[in-house]
Amino acid sequence: VRQEDDRRDGEDLGPEHFGWFAAPKFHQHPGKPLRIAALAPCCGVRDIAIRALTSEGIEWNEVFVGGGHAAVMAAVSAGLAVAAFSCRLAPADTIEVGRRLGLPELPSSRITLHSTLTDRRSRDALRTLVAAYREHRAPKNAGAE
What we know:
alpha+beta; three-stranded antiparallel beta sheet
């Protein structure tokens, strides 16, 4: 869960960074509203992206609304639009285009694990999951000298 409210409990797993992604050949027509793809209006990342565009006075047009992350990824990969994605979840065949298109920087968030599980076996499994997640996210050269 991304930590975007005042809830302070849970296991902090680290930062989540966001960017504007598009297919390498995506072309934004000068003077036209930015074509964006997003999840349904209840999506927190969509809300952050729309607020950022609106606060900068950037006109936008939602040309694709997907029912799931995979659908939005496919629309962006096909060159239909730009989307705000977590940098770790952006489609591999896309590039970050925020600076190139003059788009506002998106704020980072925190990933927090919340659980109501209390039995020892479940807590042990969660500790293993957290350790694996942190190991996967660790810089490749951490500890190397």
